[in-house]
């Protein structure tokens, strides 16, 4: 099926809602984190913070943002550092998805959430109240979200920030690493540590056809139009700044180390909010066995398996995406917009 990339981005579902605005939180001369939200004066019922996966960019979530808007939920999309519209870790090599450690990501993400998200969540009808906030995250974003909930889910005033989370194919293990036995895995990671800024084996800058290279077909999405969204943006002259290629060895080492943190005894058990997790049955990127094992450790976890779905559930065809989105919104009704105040809390 041939897709006209120029007209694809003109479809209403792939366009931002009215009054959409991209802004930045500057940390220093080398790092700005981009976030987007609708600057509308409408009265919302809740706030959803969306965090994408490795190499993702906020624009690819416009369809989900519009669905949230239709349900009167304000979406705030955050581009993780090193990708999307946020600063790159190696400025003169922007195609390399590098890392300076996941702990730094968590610290900077908390600053954005504490300063930007909480102020955007003030109830327009009563500025003494805050709208309920929940996390929506995919893959690496799901990994970061679980660590955030375990370590940071409190505002500078001591109040809980997020009351629920919805995760799509969270990266709790990486298939390309976990398929090796521990001794060989350790040896390979040691070798990669000798060239930290190099692309991972088989990696490269993004190019037109990047996702169609050998071994990558049938990994991301079976929906032709949603699958083409990344290519449409990365080949558009006005949006080529969003493009990034493969991760570096340093990113892989940091990701593996962070996965080990999630495995620590009593770590995930600290999270006491409801979490819905979508598991893509045909995932070839993240380790589904690690997802199943670790979701059982959550106090209030719900695992929804989507048989035959590829990795990007939010970008999948309707027969896979539809049931997850349906449960997505009933889960919000049951766990976010519940209670006498519809989840709203007084600001202390």
Protein model, in words:
The chain is an alpha/beta fold. It has one domain (5-334): Rossmann fold, CATH 3.40.50. It contains 10 helices and 10 strands. The strands form 2 sheets. It has an 8-stranded mixed sheet with strand order 1-2-4-3-6-7-8-9, sandwiched between helices. Strand 6 (133-138), helix 4 and strand 7 (162-168) form a beta-alpha-beta unit. The longest helix has 19 residues, at 102-120. The chain is globular. The chain starts with a helix and ends with a strand.
Write the layout of secondary structure elements.
Layout: H1 5-8, E1 20-28, E2 31-38, E3 46-51, H2 62-70, E4 73-78, H3 102-120, E5 129-130, E6 133-138, H4 140-151, E7 162-168, H5 175-178, H6 182-192, H7 224-234, H8 249-262, E8 275-280, H9 288-295, E9 301-306, H10 318-335, E10 345-346
Parallel strand pairs: 3-4, 3-6, 6-7, 7-8, 8-9
Antiparallel strand pairs: 1-2, 2-4, 5-10
- What is the string of SSEs from the N terminus onward? HEEEHEHEEHEHHHHEHEHE
Tell me the distance between the termini: 55 Å
Shape: globular
Supply the CATH class. Alpha Beta
Low-pLDDT sequence parts: none
Essential attributes:
348 residues, alpha/beta, Rossmann fold, two-stranded antiparallel sheet, 10 strands, 32% helix
């Amino acid at each position: 099926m041939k897709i006209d990339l120029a007209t694809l981005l003109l479809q209403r579902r792939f366009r931002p809602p009215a009054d959409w605005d991209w802004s930045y939180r500057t940390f220093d001369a080398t790092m700005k984190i981009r976030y987007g939200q609708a600057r509308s004066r409408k009265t919302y019922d809740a706030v959803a913070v969306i965090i994408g996966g490795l190499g993702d960019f906020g624009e690819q979530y416009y369809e989900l943002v519009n669905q949230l808007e239709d349900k009167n939920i304000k979406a705030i999309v955050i581009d993780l550092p090193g990708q999307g519209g946020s600063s790159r870790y190696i400025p003169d090599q922007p195609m390399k998805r590098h890392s300076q450690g996941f702990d730094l990501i968590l610290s900077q993400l908390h600053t954005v959430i504490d300063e930007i998200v909480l102020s955007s969540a003030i109830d327009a009808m009563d500025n003494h109240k805050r709208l309920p906030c929940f996390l929506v995250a995919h893959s690496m974003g799901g990994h970061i979200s679980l660590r955030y909930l375990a370590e940071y889910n409190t505002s500078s005033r001591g109040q809980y920030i997020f009351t629920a989370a919805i995760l799509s194919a969270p990266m709790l293990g990486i298939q390309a690493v976990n398929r090796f036995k521990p001794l060989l895995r350790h040896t390979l990671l040691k070798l990669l540590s000798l060239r930290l800024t190099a692309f991972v084996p088989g990696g490269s800058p993004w190019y037109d056809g990047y996702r169609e290279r050998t071994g990558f077909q049938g990994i991301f999405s079976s929906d032709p139009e949603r699958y083409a969204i990344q290519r449409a943006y990365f080949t558009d002259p006005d949006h080529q700044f969003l493009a990034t290629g493969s991760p570096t060895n340093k990113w892989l080492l940091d990701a593996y180390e962070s996965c080990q943190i999630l495995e620590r005894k009593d770590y995930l058990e600290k999270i006491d909010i409801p979490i819905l997790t979508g598991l893509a049955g045909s995932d070839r990127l993240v380790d589904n066995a690690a997802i199943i094992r670790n979701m059982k450790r959550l106090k209030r976890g719900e695992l929804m398996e989507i048989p035959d779905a590829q990795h990007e559930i939010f970008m999948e065809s309707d027969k896979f995406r539809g049931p997850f989105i349906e449960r997505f919104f009933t889960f919000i009704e049951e766990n976010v917009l519940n209670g006498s105040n519809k989840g709203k809390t007084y600001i202390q």
